[in-house]
Amino acid sequence: MADFLYYRDDAPHEEPAVTLDGFLDQANASAVRIEAGEDARALLPHLERLRMIEVSFPTFKDGRGYSAAQILREAGYDGELRAQGDVLVDQIPFMRRCGFDSFSPETPVDPATLQASLDRYDQVYQRAADGAVPVWKLRHG
Amino acid sequence: MYRYDQYDQQIVDTRVEEFRDQVKRRLSGALTEDQFKPLRLMNGLYLQLHAYMLRVAVPYGTLDGRQMRMLAEIARKYDRGYGHFTTRQNIQYNWIKLADAPDILADLATVEMHAIQTSGNCIRNISSDQFAGAAADEIADPRPWAELLRQWSTFHPEFSYLPRKFKICVIASDEDRAAMRLHDIGIQLVVRDGQIGAKVFAGGGMGRTPMIAPEINDFVAIADLLSYVEAALRVYNRHGRRDNIYKARIKILVNDLGAEEYARQVDEEFAGMKARDIDPPAAEFDRIAAFFAPPAFDADAPDTIDRSDPDFAVWLDQNVRAHKQPGYAIATISLKPVGGIPGDASAEQMDVVADLAERYSLDEVRVTHSQNLVLPHVRKADLYTVWQALRDAGLAEANLDLISDIIACPGLDYCSLANARSIPVAQKIAQRFADLDRQRELGELKLKISGCINACGHHHAGHIGILGVDRKGTENYQLLLGGSGAEDVSLAKITGPGFDEDGVVDAIEKVTNVYLGARQDDERFVDTYRRLGMEPFKEAIYG
Amino acid sequence: MNILTGNDLKTGDVIWWTGSDWSRHVEDAADVGDNGEAIAHEEEGARRVNSPYVIAGEKTDKGPRPAHIKDRVRALGPTVRPDLTLKPADPEAGSWVI
After folding, report:
1. Which of residues 49-88 of C touch B (CB under 8 A)?
2. A5-140, CATH topology level
3. What's the structural domain count of chain C?
4. Where are the beta strands (DSSP E) in C8-96?
């Protein structure tokens, strides 16, 4: 079993994720997986019944999932947002900033390296879905 | 110029430690090269032909003496005594050891410098006008806007794995000294109803498929700048092509959608952005802008220059430009001595420039996209002294914008992507036209050489461009005419079959002869080409 | 002949497989026959080389010569800075590249 990293207080959602098309056809599904090229905005009318959204990273170079996560969080989605696929330890801090709160990386992640990486920066320069306060705000209150 | 506060310094220092950890993991084997590559690239570290290469950011091309001296020190301590100034206003070192890279970054951090996002598929160093803050024709100093963008783009979590690299340029005058419309996003500051705003162009670029950026917005207020650019990037990150590296730049997306449709999508995205509180308050812009307030000019600086030394007078006419402050001038230091390597400077030369900046240019130096340096604020009364010091350091070539002021990428002498050498061609052309009177007779002639289709040498934007290709294992050079990276932006067209190294130098001599025979009034080479078209030039070369 | 080359992981130096080790001098390069990929895989795994690859070359009086100009530039150093090449004292070194 590959790693599973979870940064939420509630229990992980157990229902298996269906495809985007499957989800849009199934009125009672509460977990969905979107592929890198799929439009996260297609989910916006259904956010209230979603408990888990999995976003696929077919290769670590494919950064579309970061925007998908941002869009979902900006729209108010507060359920589990999972990054799955070629998710590398040095990317997880950026993914956390974009709103991902669980991770299912294909290759195991060294916990000490990950923790160091997540703890590293105290400051950020810009707004993102994590709500971290950018330095311009710290400068001017 | 901008100075770091505790936050800026902390972020850069933390970055050094992060990279130290990443290098350690690479050397221990915890990271494979495939996994390490994107991490090192986001810190400007390449594996080149002979060694690792480190590209250090010079944000919007502005440095002070202390920083220039550190660049010299790094060249001596960690490299082989020189550095190469690039067409993106950065500097790169060719002989870096991986294990030294974290220490170099630590040294850079002590003078508020870094190598963050000088490579990789992220938002790169923001480029600007090398005469910013000095040019007589600017409506405002563009650098506060560039610094705002620098901070916003640094470690942007959503835009660090874009389809491809992303280059932004900010200028503030009608004369374009920074090739603004050949950037992924080009911004020209304009005044409307007494307010300064950004005219935004998107989808320019060189490379395999050169394109001139169309305008997508005629006025974005400073209060909306970051959210607008964030919207522009999001549309690109979501919809830019990822199936083909050669079609992944934003220019392909903008071209495929059409500028109007791209602009519409950006507007749609922008509508939602304002609620996110992305834009800093006016106080933050004012804080940054205060660092770029005009320096303490000497109001009594005499406005006359003693031109009695004829060699000095030539340099004055060729390399010195008007300053907005009476009694001051902008002096360009050519890094293009005949027979030299365009853009290279030795550690000793960098030290000389640092000294001159501190003593005679209100502690400022600029790097230009033409791979030269600039002393932006020199008292006219000091120009002769400055020129003498430059001459003694081999830095007083009086060839700004002349045929020997050649932009050349490192080419196959250094670069693992290159197909042909660029530097030897530049050297041969400069030698053929070494007579300065002959160069001045030819007038403004921008010659640009790339050693491969990636076009780091801006060959598409040369009045004369040269593209090195590999023809069955030998170097071959295609000739292009009629490009420009300036406000009269245009893309050069290929003349026909390519040449060997000597052949392309001969062909250049022929096209310049056509120009000399046909020019009217004060036409430049490119003006004559535009009037006559390709035919007479082609006839002279191949006829 | 087939030559295996790459860069030293720590220093970045261009290196050539000698049959038992790595050398900075192309003169020492061995003919790896069809074993290049296998050696490359093992040596890279052991972190003795970075980004190795196999190239074609020919045997000459002066030793192995890479078939492609790019690897000849790598073998010597930048042709525009003879002082920084591996043969700073040899005025003919550049013509070996071209």
Report:
1. 50-51, 67-70, 73-74, 77-81, 84
2. Rossmann fold (3.40.50)
3. 1
4. 14-17, 22-23, 50-60, 63-66
